[in-house]
Amino acid sequence: MFQFNSMSKKNTVVIVILLLTTLMICCRPDDPAVEPEDPQDPQVSVDLDKVPYAQLSDYHFFVDDIRNQQPNSGVLPYKPISALFSDYASKKRFVWMPEGKKASYNGDGKVLEFPEGAVLIKTFYYDHVQPDNTSRLIETRVMIRKDNKWIFAEYVWNEDQTDAHLDMAGSYTDINWQKESGELIPIHYRIPSETECFTCHKSNEQPIPIGPKPQNLNNPYPFEEGTKNQLQRWIEVGYLEDNLPQNIVSTIDYYDATQPLDLRIRSYVDINCAHCHQEGSHCDYRPLRLAFSETGNPDNLGVCVPPDENIGSQLKYIILPQRPERSVMYYRLMSTDENVRMPLLGRSVVHEEGVALLEEWINTLEPCN
Predict the structure, then answer these.
(1) With CB atoms counted within 10 Å of each terminal CB, which end of the chain scores lower, N or C?
(2) Chain segment 203-231, per-residue pLDDT in tens
(3) How many CB atoms lie within 10 A of CB 167?
(4) Structure confidence by residue, pLDDT tens digits, 297-329
(5) What is the pLDDT of residues 231-273, one digit of tens each?
(6) pLDDT at 36 over 60
(7) Does 350 fall in a domain?
(8) Whole-number Å distance between alpha carbons of 320 and 316
(9) How confident is the model at residue 20 (pLDDT cuts 50, 70, 90)?
(10) Do 301 and 353 belong together in one domain?
(11) Is the domain of 63 the same as that of 149?
């Protein structure tokens, strides 16, 4: 048996204390060798030589759980004053630009001139999906400014809602959605193909965005830093040149019943129809010109204007004042037939509120001469 004298005992105590101190220093919670700190969220990644990526998460547009759509640093949310109807889907929209790059103004009703590397992100989703009254992300559409033109990247969310994968072929998914009124609406939702994206998003055979125009962004938005005019916020973060005119002629929210009826219907057709019914676009051969800047002229809205094709003996005018049921535009908005409906793409059900707005407006018009 080992024998310890008093001196040995003292030395042993000192050694034990030293060992314990060393262990405490080595095992501190903040020692990276034992328990590394949580890494910071990675920065947004848009390598123009590699995009579009296979997965939405590869861009790092969002932090933490990607399904929550919490934007990463530099990813700025935005929302147009009036929104395109897409089978009642809700949407979250974001813009990102490389450091030091800015968009520039090119007219109230024209898409902003975006720099190389700019990205527009739009996620389509539904709340109150039945039978479990859940939320479901459907698709995220990404447009990237590359080689002085826009490219499309369509991402379809997986069932677990953990990520979305690149799929440009187009597909359908069924949604059983409940409106606030309690009405249940079955939706055969179309996720567009690349060709379908181009049909709506083109001008003179070049792909373009639809919504980010000064006339659609000249309104307050509740940013995390506080409510502020969207265009001003874009300027503050360095995403827009500070050269806007003092007075931008802007659209209004077509749902806002306190606004003049004619401005509401003009805002409605601007965001829902004008991207096709304008020079150089898909429906430029038709007589309608439905951009907000053009519909101050009732002829461009089709009031007392004969259609360019024979749709039926009762439909003599695109808009027949006080007779919505005999107006071509009303007929097309009421239809879900792919060969008749308007818009041609992007919806499979009737926009009841939009039809009601059109009917109310038609009933206020003076008869044709």
Answers:
(1) N
(2) 767 888 999 999 999 999 999 999 999 99
(3) 15
(4) 999 999 999 988 777 778 989 999 999 999 999
(5) 999 999 999 999 999 999 999 999 999 999 999 999 999 999 9
(6) no
(7) yes
(8) 8
(9) very low
(10) yes
(11) yes
Higher pLDDT: 279 or 107? It is 107
Please write down the long-range contacts of 240-246, taking CB distance under 8 Å and 24 or more positions apart.
240/102, 240/103, 240/104, 240/105, 240/112, 241/102, 241/103, 241/104, 241/105, 243/104, 243/105, 244/105, 244/214, 245/105, 245/108
When divided into structural domains, the chain yields a total of 3
How far is residue 165 from each of residues 162, 201, 232, 285, 289, measured CA to CA in Å? 10, 21, 34, 37, 37
DSSP state of 193: P
Residue 85 and residue 33 in one domain: no
The whole domain housing 19 covers: 1-37
Are 326 and 313 spatial neighbours (Cβ–Cβ below 8 Å)?
Answer: no
What is the per-residue pLDDT for 362? 97
Q: Is residue 42 part of a domain?
A: no
Strand ranges for the chain from DSSP E: 76-78, 90-96, 119-129, 134-146, 149-157, 164-166, 171-178, 184-191, 202-203, 206-207, 220-223, 226-229
Q: Is residue 180 part of a domain?
A: yes
Is residue 244 in some structural domain? no
Q: 339 and 215 in one domain?
A: no
Radius of gyration, CA atoms only, the chain: 28
**pTM of the entire predicted model:** 0.85
The number of C-alpha atoms within 13 Å of 14 and in the hemisphere containing its C-beta is 6
Instruction: Quote the percentage of the chain above a pLDDT of 70.
Output: 87
Other Cβ atoms less than 10 A from the Cβ of 283: the count is 18
**Cis? peptide before 52, omega within 30° of 0:** yes
